[in-house]
Every structure is written in C-alpha cells, then in structure tokens.
Write a structure and sequence with these properties.
It comes from Maribacter cobaltidurans. It is found in: Cell outer membrane. Strand 11 and strand 12 form a beta hairpin. The protein has one domain: Outer membrane phospholipase (ompla), Chain C, CATH 2.40.230. The strands form two sheets. It has a twelve-stranded antiparallel barrel. By secondary structure, it is mainly beta. It contains three helices and 15 strands.
Length: 301
C-alpha cells in the first residue's frame, strides 16, 4: 500500500477512535445541546450584547485539520498572463494538514451618527505538508486576510427570515510570497445577514480593486464574485456550507462549495469534518480545481 494512503487510513482510524470515545460518554450530555451564538450575539447587534471596543473575539471558525486529502494536488501552480509558474513541479503529498485562525475586534461603537459599528478582523489559513518528510515538512501555502468591516444592525422580516445586519468591508488577501508564487488581491465587499431560529444565512458580493496589473488577474473568474454561507446549529453541533460563484456563464461559470460539520467531543473540544470542491481552496490554487476531504478538531465555531 502506498505511504500516502496508509497515512490517510491512520488519520481516519484515529478520528474514528475519537468518535467512539465520544459515543461511550453518555453520562453528561447537557453541554452538547447548549445553544450556539446568534448573529446578534456574535456581532453585538443589540445594546444588551455590546461588550466594549478593542475586545478580541472569534470571527471565522478556528480549527486544525489533522489530515486533508486532495484528489488533484497542485504540484505546478501557475498564473495566467504573467508567466508566473515554477520551472518544474514540486513533489507534494496528497495528504497534508491545515489550520485556520480568525479574530475580530470592535474598533468604533455607534459610528456614523450612531448607526453603525466598525470592526477590524484578521484571518490566517495555513497548508502544511506535515507528512512530507522528503521536503522537510514545509508549509506549502499560508494565506493572510485582514479586513475592515462596517456593520449596520437591522431588524426586518423577509420570506420568513429576519434581516439582522448589513454592511460593507475592505478585504486584502495575500500569501506573502515573491514571484513566481506571489498571489494577492484587494476587494470591496457588501454583505447582509439573516436568521430564522438556528438557521443563519450570510450573503456577500464584491468588486475587485486595482486588478489591472497583478499576479492573478482573472481570480474572480475562478474564486468568484459572490458568496453565500448557510449555517445550521443544533445545540453545539454545527453544519455550514460556503458556496462561491463567478456569476458568469459558459466556460467562466466557476466557483466552489465547502461543506463543514463539527460536533463536541469533550466540552469546548470539537471534531471537525470538511469537504471542498472547486477552485480556490487556497490562494495559490485560485485557478486550480480539486476536491479535498479533511478531518480534524475545531476550537471555536
């Protein structure tokens, strides 16, 4: 059996053992069904949830994927129109580790005539060839994403949902590398958030800023121009899907979908399963299509 598949089977065995231990612990289950935070709580949209400025809280989920398998590893990343490609392919493992860190803080409270809050956020995703001993276990790719977010609290009904928030953001994303592997872009994004009980929907649409001369000029035709994130909480179990699309037809109709499921193992320690299909699993892979399957642990949902 090839080493890469043996590694994946080992990871899945450990994960299955964790699930079995979780299933055998039937004595106290109250902590499994404690309610997750609503949009109003997460973004402090009501006066009762306001915690003050410059207090660091979570933004996107924080997780560590112990093993992530790819059906089509990008061993020869390239960028159109600028000859940004390696001189020869890199022998990458099909199984690697991945982690995401994401934090936010409220910078201004009741700005713009008392109608909006201003947040600063930072997310980092790292793709780690943890099992690639031949290449000394390098970090294949690290993506950095700082944001400035303007949020307006709302309260209106539409199609059975309650509109909770709307706003705009400036987003920069880059991998901090030099040519030929440099990838970066800036975008202006608008968003709106809705909920209906444990179901939450976040819609985003963006335009690119300053994209006429860069290292990934057609990134929106691959990663997309819009995003829909749908989250359903059952106590502390969370199902969420993130779909992106280019909003184009024909051969430019591209995008991605990411499916996630997390459930508690012990108190605040949760298992995390993630499936991805499409373009842009990482920034270096923005124009590369693949399907990935990962298992790991989630610390903050």
């Amino acid at each position: 059996m090839p080493k890469k598949y043996a590694t994946l089977i080992f990871i899945l065995t450990i994960f299955q053992f964790s699930i079995s231990c979780f299933a055998q612990n039937n004595e106290e289950k109250d902590w499994i069904f404690k309610n997750s935070k609503t949009l109003s709580e997460m973004w402090e949209l009501k006066e009762e949830y306001h915690r003050g400025t410059f207090i660091i809280t979570s933004y996107e989920p924080v997780y560590f994927t112990v093993g992530k398998f790819s059906t089509n590893t990008n061993k020869f990343p390239s960028s159109e129109e600028r000859n940004n490609f390696l001189s020869e392919p890199v022998e990458l493992d099909v199984v690697e580790a991945k982690f995401q860190l994401s934090l936010k803080t409220k910078v201004f409270y009741k700005a713009l005539w008392g109608k909006a809050d201003v947040w600063a956020a930072f997310s980092q995703r790292a793709y780690w060839q943890l099992y690639n001993k031949e290449l000394s276990r390098p970090f294949r790719e690290t993506n950095y994403q700082p944001e400035i977010i303007l949020n307006f609290p709302l309260n209106f009904k539409v199609l059975g949902f309650t509109g909770r928030m709307a706003g705009a953001a400036f987003v920069h994303e880059s991998n901090g590398r030099s040519d030929p592997l440099s990838r970066s872009w800036n975008r202006f994004s608008v968003h709106a958030g809705f909920d209906r009980g444990p179901l939450q929907i976040m819609l985003k649409n963006w335009i690119r800023l300053g994209g006429s001369n860069d290292d990934n000029p057609q990134i929106m035709d691959y990663i997309g121009r819009a995003e829909a994130k749908v989250t359903y909480d059952w106590g502390r179990q969370r199902f969420y899907a993130i779909a992106r699309h280019s909003l184009r037809f024909g051969d430019k109709s591209r995008g991605s979908i990411q499916l996630n499921y997390s459930f508690p193992i012990v108190k605040n320690f949760s298992a995390h399963i993630q499936i991805f299909d499409g373009y842009g699993e990482s920034l270096i892979d923005y124009n590369h299509r693949q399907t990935t399957f990962g298992v790991g642990v989630s610390l903050i949902n």
